[in-house]
Structure to design on (1216 residues):
């Protein structure tokens, strides 16, 4: 299939959606990203790389980093993780406190903020330096040793992150954080501040399209079964309370971030990333979702 | 792949789970089904049929019928349907009133009871005889002209169905039923009372594994896009508040019923049905879920 | 105290609020009541009667009838009633399904609709003819043998009462109705359709201001303790999710109805009724609430 | 009335309830209070003082301090306060996050923890030293210059107060705290750590039984209307989600604390305090509630 031509066409076809969403503005570092940016990268299991637009420009991956931390936590403690975090869609916004209270401090899944805080807590317990370990893992996955945390993004999020602080304190009140609230939030904000490009992210996600094995090196990162499960979580929970909508329209496991990025995979075929900073009310990139819907419709490739 | 041998092995391996669930008991007709029954049928796109156990015995499909009514409603009014029913996982039990109230009478998705009542209402508006039309459609799908509603099951459900009556009245209070509460409930209970065997159900689901086309006849029932979307709904919403768990453990689009049946599909490959009447607290067959988990693990076939 | 002068002044002072609320419109019989009506009646324990405006005109008492049914139910089965209905404020609208689901079919208190349906169910079980008994009791309380149910109001409410039908079915699904849904709703709608004037209602409430004894006849209707408890329920739950507001601004036990009536009592002193059909978004009379706030402020009489 | 004899009898009659509740144990300082303590003090508007048991022993007043902070905040900014905090019963536990999320950061009333944090924030904004001001006010009210905060209680609460930290952060995320989370929590924990005896508390509450005027000095602390309103809030919201139960059984405006204290007033007559450290699942003293129920039943004095 001529993915390059398809990506080119998609880039043209989503252009009229400019202005339909809004760049995240809760911290200055995100607010000042030019709203017109659009990039897309598709990497095949065979190493084929197709790109369009700003695919090499780095952006704040934000919640897409939750895939890296979850993968690491599963590698560390496997199924045990799911004693402290559930695996059901939440039906509530990503930062909701309600579900947490009704279910006594067990976050509904690892991709809502509360769940990712628990995952981060696991890493802090398991590893000498969880911040460094996650950065190293991301570098290893994408094969770029110079990707980095954006310290000013992390600092800004920390200063204004009262909702996350509320979630972390509430988890702590239910004994579902073992490290200090401060340490968990600090690591969490650093993970979210990771800066990567579409190309880098697509490469980093490729093992999820290949039953847990990095195609180039043959390194197994997760078992077949763990990979199936992580992809299932991405499909059912990767888009906050728009997970059903993404599955319905796009039909791929994926993860979005408020920086406007979305990474998704087609098992057995490829990984794809799209970046466009204008997001909708659910926190998902407007042009990004449309671009991926076009991709699965035009290629006829989706998991369904 | 030798599916026959795999099914035989699964049947043996799930046997020890007998007693781990409970036969649905809210109406006598379901309560008197022997708890030990277990059947499984897999039908390939190539027509290959593998069965084990009680695969030819008919049982009450219950909520699996929601797939037939939804398919018909999409054929009738397409995307318009989703103005009256959402497509997000509910995060609540199948018969919850809470979500309905918070979201002003718009059911979260077509597979919770409230959503299926709206779908039934659409059919009543669109068709001269919605009860007959659904039965005819199911017969057509499985190629068996003698499957039928079980009148005594329908009557029993009606007599004791106070929760469904509450849901229907609440939908009506929000103007989200256009026909009378009585007519909607009557048709709904008939749809649920449909009796089919594993073999018949697997055949009926096969078009969903084939991008909307019945393999044998070549008849297109849904467009490629509609099929993708229906499968996405099955994956994210087909198992009530255990949808995430089913996606996580099994990794196939599917639908369960409190009669103990589960139908699922592997796109491009096959449809499978399992029946075992003992259900867990979420209303899903205990041995059925385990059998399908074994199937995707042992075949290495899942959508992820 | 010169209550007559105070009532006259209040009637003048609330007049500018005309138009600030809306006449209940969900059934034609209520919608056609002239919005400008305003009446008020105060009856002292000594028999003194002061009135202003349309105090002799009958209106649909609606939920104020819940005080009569609750009094009768307490007379019939005493504290046992509270095994089937709670006594806490609900924090939710009068017709909410949410609380009912979270608390497994036990209505939060007897003054929300779900609670009043349970109270009606108790009367149906205890009495040969619950509709007649409630009417007789209301006639006895106010000393007017010609007050009556309004059959057309009852019929209209029944035809459009889908939310109440939802509540009743849900209660039945939790075994918290012992009679048929139809019988309970029929009696309930009749009770709500009772027509009485301000003067009649004030006389009917007087025993609640006198520790359970009708002053004129000396007849004891409730024990001192039962009366204290019923008044406590009125104060904490008598105004749906505006109970706190009414206690805060007015400071009297009372009960409102969507017909625009409010009846309240000052223990040891008097009963008062106000009627003005324009209601606010919570279902409480706008001028009625203001009039009673003025009454307690100007007389310096409130329970606090 | 011979209140002394009544108090003596009550002390005897509630003794068998020892063991029916549990001493609060979330911080060591509260857990080590002897569970058998019982004290009661009644102070009349005429200055009459009756006591029984451990009425002179100081205990941690905890949430009873919310009455002092609310009184001060009303004195400072009056009705404006209610733009930032509601006045309806919450229908949820004292430390619930759910209501706060559904109502966008406006606590339902000033007596749940979230509401008291907003009240504390108001004091921090209005006063140079809010901790000192509240202590001075409490000393002034009871006429004892040596009552004090218990620094070890305050420190312990701060160390373990993750739920309160969650609430404060969530309020801050909704811009409903104007001071820093740390400053608000520090002041709040100090207020809660106030140590007072039954006699001191009863004296401090007396102005609420006297329309806002301290009887001995004639000093007006609140207007008549403000006093009515504060008493209404106590009645509808003073006992968390047992407010209805307390109104129903006791029938007085009052406030409880997890230290086992309850202060209540009978307008125009007296203030009463009871202390017994064993609390029920709602955080209210078991013997305390029973003692006050006996008091209003035996004296025939309640607001209803």
């Amino acid at each position: 299939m001529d993915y390059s031509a398809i990506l080119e066409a998609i880039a043209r076809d989503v252009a009229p959606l400019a202005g339909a969403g809004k760049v995240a503005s809760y911290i200055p570092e995100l607010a000042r990203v030019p709203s017109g940016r659009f990039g897309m990268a598709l990497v095949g299991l065979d190493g084929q790389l197709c790109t369009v637009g700003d695919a090499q420009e780095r952006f704040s991956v934000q919640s897409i980093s939750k895939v890296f931390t979850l993968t690491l936590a599963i590698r560390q403690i496997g199924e045990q993780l799911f004693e402290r975090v559930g695996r059901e869609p939440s039906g509530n916004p990503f930062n909701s406190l309600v579900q947490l209270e009704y279910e006594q401090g067990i976050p509904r899944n690892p991709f809502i903020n509360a769940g990712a805080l628990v995952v981060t807590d696991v890493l802090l317990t398991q590893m000498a330096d969880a911040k460094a370990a996650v950065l190293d893992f991301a570098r290893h996955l994408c094969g770029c040793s110079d990707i980095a945390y954006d310290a000013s993004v992390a600092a800004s999020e920390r200063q204004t992150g009262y909702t996350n602080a509320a979630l972390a304190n509430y988890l702590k009140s239910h004994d579902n954080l073992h490290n200090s609230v401060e340490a968990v939030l600090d690591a969490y904000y650093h993970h979210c501040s990771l800066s990567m490009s579409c190309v880098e992210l697509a490469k980093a996600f490729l093992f999820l399209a290949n039953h847990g094995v990095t195609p180039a090196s043959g390194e197994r990162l997760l078992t077949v079964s763990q990979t199936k499960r992580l992809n299932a979580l991405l499909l059912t929970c990767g888009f906050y309370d728009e997970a059903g909508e993404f599955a319905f329209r796009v039909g791929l496991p994926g993860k979005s971030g408020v920086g406007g990025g979305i990474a998704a995979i087609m098992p057995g075929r490829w990984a794809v990333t799209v970046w466009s900073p204008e997001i909708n009310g659910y926190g998902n990139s407007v042009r990004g979702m449309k671009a991926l819907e076009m991709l699965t419709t035009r290629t006829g490739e989706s998991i369904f």
